[in-house]
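Ticket #4471: complex job returned nothing on first submit. Input attached below:
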Amino acid sequence: MTTDNRYHWPHKDLLDVTQLSREDVLHVLDLAARFREINRRPIKKVPTLKGKTVVLFFVENSTRTKTSFDVAGKRLSADTYSLARTGSSLNKGESLKDTALTLQAMGPDVIVIRHSSSGAAAFLADLLPCGIVNGGDGWHAHPTQALLDCFSLRETWGDDFAGRSLLILGDIAHSRVARSNVHLLSLLGVKVRLCAPRTLLPAGVETWPVEVFCDLRSAVRDVDAVMCLRLQLERQQAGLLPDLAEYSRRFCLGPAHLALARPDAKVLHPGPLNRGLEISPEIADAPASLVLNQVAAGVATRMAVLYLLARRDAAGEQEGNC
Amino acid sequence: MTLCIKNARHLEAPVDLLVHGAEILTMTPAGHHPAPEGCEVFDARGLVLMPSLIDAHVHLREPGFEYKEDIASGLAAAAHGGFGAVLCMANTRPVNDTASVTRFMLDRARSSHPHGPRLYPVAAASVGLRGEEMAPLAELREAGCVAVSNDGRPLENTELLRRIMEYAADLGLILIDHCEDPWLGRGWLMNEGPASGLLGVKGQPGVGEAVQAARDVMLAEYLHVPVHIAHVSSRLTLEVIAWAKARGVKVSAETCPHYLLLDESALEGYNTAAKVSPPLRAPEDREALRRAVKDGLIDILVTDHAPHAAQEKESTLDEAPCGLSGLDLAVSLTWSLVAQGVLSEADLQRLWCRSPAEIFHLPWNGFAPGDPADFFLLDPDETWIPGPETMFSKSRNTPFLGQTLRGRVKHHWLGGARLF
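Support reply: We reran it on our side without changes. The output follows.
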């Protein structure tokens, strides 16, 4: 699973993993592995993106993803600026279009957008000439999360993805993490299972390349990994669930479940965790948990993505100098 | 004053049309009679002669939302789209729930378009469209309203709906109901299905329309009153209507060109121009609707002309309002269905003219002697591209923007007077 040296990244934006070929994905993961090495050094900063500007435009609250992109940009010596909803003119009734045009006028190389509306990243990408990274749009997509999850799995599995099985557990319907991961894992040959009550499954799931379960014990049997999703508490208020205790009783991943999986099975979670709701504390703290590896993988993967988008004009330039 | 339209094509045959004053005198095979002495002759060779159409469902936004559309611009779009009459919905600001609003609308129409197109306001079914108290329907009818609807704010209270249907029936007014379950898929942005699942947006299933249509037709049967189902989008609703018609329920129904031409895939890329209410459904629904307009299960076509300003649609899918601007394009869009063999020219006249006239008791032109001289000439081959230069509506929110359409209204007469 290594990529051709003559490879050329063809994308202006990263909106979803669905736009990526297998070759693109492997290129991102290879590059992220090199940045992962840099992140292990005592001096973690390289001058690769010196003079480049990355704007973190986070209209929906997020601390983890924003920090991860911020660290990634700074380690590459890019200048990073944050713009949140509070403090931006969106709060004063400015339209997303005008805010975006204003940001563009400041000449950024890349804008990372996090927005509660599905399609917001695509809206910006159509409007602006700079590179757009989708840092999560509504229920739609979260491509860097899916890439970092695969990066974490690759650190464990090596290039041995094909034929593995992975269970995504929880609120699939409202999860951009699930949508992007189903696609990316399938692209890499992983057999994906979903487990959720039907009220938390997306419309048309029967057309997805997945196997669907409503019983966790059956779903987890012999899988190589489980990805737990965060349950948003408003799902219960929306009438999709009776109460959280019942949800936890049916869908909280505990040691007894993991015992049914493959002996070396790993557990992932995009965070933040609801301990005791979708993941038991024992599992969260167990050696099988990759949760903190995912955080480290996030920085490396986002470095790779920022690098590819910010340097896309430097065609033919060797990547050896990173 | 007599006018002779010579050599026009009507129902695939060449005809000559004689008009005297505001009325049709005769329509005869072309060349049968020489034009009378002193008569104005218009050579219509190569053009299709159609009766002026009736659009029973438009939103003209005035009063209150003139930045989207006003009565003058909406009627201009209607005239150039081949429409001689439009029924405008009551969701203005203020709502058309009092005679003074109705009279204001009619005054605006008469002053901006003295020769037409004619405006027929639709009365709000409930005060302020709030769905709480019945609007003064007799007063509204006297002021000029021709039907009743809570369009845009579906009536949730079934008891109130029943009382409105009964009360309106006494006045000879029919209820046009926008069928949408208030809870199922609440907050939807598009049809529920594989496409909404992949796009990660909330969907509304077609059953959300069908259950309310079932409520309406059962009430209509029980009360022995007519009901008209607005903008049918789902094949399930068609089954409800078929069931009701088979039982003799006095139900009529409409659909729009966009439901015959597009499906939910138009929302790919989060295309806000394709966000309409009810939402574009699956290809199976589109095909079922095509069959239903052909065989008469759906009685009429309407545009549901719903103009919105550019800045309102230049946004994310959840922020953008529902609706598309339809009056300028409707004839070309439905003419494309004739070109494809889905509908005939006679079907268009039935769906856009005769049937709406019958349902809402309006004058119409069947080209019989004495009929109103409301007609237009269409160039069936002329191509055009919808855009700011070619559309008369103030708003260009249409998923067909920039596409090449075939068939263009060239000349339009209403009451024997030439509009253009």
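The beta strands of chain A are 53-58, 79-84, 110-115, 131-137, 165-169, 191-195, 210-213, 225-228, 266-268. Closing as resolved unless it happens again.
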